[in-house]
Every structure is written in structure tokens, then in C-alpha cells.
Amino acid sequence: MTDEFHKPTQYSGDKFDTFVGGEDPAQISRVAHETALALLSRVRDNPESEIVERLVAFTDQHGIDAVAELWSRANPRSLPGALWRIYLVRALVRQDPTGTSFLYQRGVEVATSIDPVVAGATAPTGPDEITTLADQILRGLFQGDFAVALDRAAAFCRIMSLGCTSVADDSDSTSPERASELTTRALRFSTTANEFVACARLWRTDSLD
Hints:
It comes from Lacisediminihabitans changchengi. The chain has helices spanning 25-45, 49-56, 58-62, 64-71, 79-95, 97-110, 115-119, 127-143, 146-171, 176-204. By secondary structure, it is mainly α. It has one domain (3-204). It is globular, with a radius of gyration of 16 Å. The relative contact order is 0.14.
């Protein structure tokens, strides 16, 4: 979910390819920022439930590539970068709710922080609950406290990182390849959590653009 996570099509939870598209980085950046700001401003100024729900479910109909083309190459600590990563997290959850909820629940079990409370998933967290959580976080960007939604996303990613690390430890002796994949994924979740935290801090100082 850092730059390595950019992928405009279907992807597996343990493999993310680099998204490549466009020829002019400056133009890509300008379009990414302008579209993110225009979309967010319009919806947050008039958060009609029907429009918000359509945006939440946008990638279900159009695919994650539709969002990737706009925002996947943006700086992680920017408005389009934050939106892209939130959509990517939701896509990951919806593609494998069972596997994601298993890792999340393991993370909750080993967590020693308040992250499970901040993330706000219903406990115990199964496939339905993890899917609902992903929708709630994305919805919060459009009709709630944007920074709080990012904080929830960061907590989710930290819990997922813990879950991946814990399961990797269990698999280390019997399935080293699986353990290695999970360890890599844990690092990516941790990095993404830090990016969400940075974006939330910038939003609170009116510096996220």
C-alpha cells in the first residue's frame, strides 16, 4: 500500500505490482490533486447519502483501476494519495474478507494499544464485520471527520500488521515462504499506517493538498 502497492487491476493480498500510466508526471500530479480536491469539496459541502454511497461503492462497479488512474501515483502524504490508499484498503478487504478478517482478529488478540477501539470494528470481527468497517472508514472521508477516518484507517493497518506478523511467526518453521510473504505484507501495512497518520496530521492543520 505504499508505492509498491499500486495496481490498477485485481491483485492478491500478498502481491502488489507497480502501477504505470501516463507520460507527464507533472500533469498526472496536477490532475490527481485537482480531481481529489474537487470531489471531496463537492461531496463534503453537500453530503447527500445517495452520492456518498455511490462513491463508497464506486470501485465495485468500475474496478480499482478507475481510481488508480487518477490517484495511485500521487505522493502518499497528499489528498489524492490518502484517497487512493483508503480505496485500496477497501478493495483488499472486499476481495478477501475471510482472510482479512482472520488476520485482523489475530492482530486484535495480540494488540496492546487502543488501536482496536480506534478502528471500531464489531467484535468478534468476521468477514461481514470487516467489510462493514472498510465501508465505514471510506464513508467517513466524505461525510464525517476526515482526520478521524484516517486515524481509523491507520489503526486498521497497524492491527493488520500485527496479525500478519503473528501468523508469520506461527508459519516460520512449517511454511517459510508464507511467513516471508506475511512479514513483507506486515511491513507494508505498517508503512501505510504511518502515511495515514501523517495525512491526518496535515489535514488538521489545513495542509493536506
